[in-house]
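re: ur question from yesterday

yeah so i grabbed the chain u mentioned. its 174 aa long if i counted rite. heres the sequnce exactly as i have it in my notes:
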Amino acid sequence: MKHITLIIIAVLFSVTAFAQQTFNTDFTQTKVMKVSGKTTNKTGHILFDGKDQLKMIYSEPEGDYFIIEGNLVRINMDGKKADLDASKVKMVGLQRATLLNCLSGNWEQAAADNKAETTITEDNGLKTISINAKGKVPKGGYKSVELTYRISDGKMVKMVLEEAIGVINTYEIK
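ran it thru and got these structure tokens back, copy pasting raw so excuse formatting
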């Protein structure tokens, strides 16, 4: 019985070790438009409470932001502003849920929401979880998501989101 209890504790620890609870750090974002090949680089600061409050405040370009406050998604990107209710706009709701689930370490739910399968690899002290759509991607969903964590402390260091429309956003988290 003790052996089973120790195995359960070890499994729970290994899963929760990669569940990022909060962020308060800098990041870089590289956005690639597959069709045109255009690449855009941005930098900023990310604050995440581990639940449903996320602030990505960009320092370059200054003034851009992406904020989630509960169901409200506030965006100011390249001079285009929008306040969207994720509970009313299905596409925004799916993107919001995927992003929050990935950041909080709930990648299983992100995979289920995007009708995707997962693979996990470990190499050079990093654990990578790849989430790939099995068939048609839901509207607003992601074709693939790749999450990379340091094994030593479970900290997320990279997140790659590939949208069905051919936009790939890579976030390097400091």
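noticed a couple things. Residues 20-173 form a domain with the outer membrane lipoprotein receptor (LolB), chain A fold (CATH 2.50.20.10). also The CA atoms of residues 162 and 168 lie 4 Å apart.
anyway ttyl
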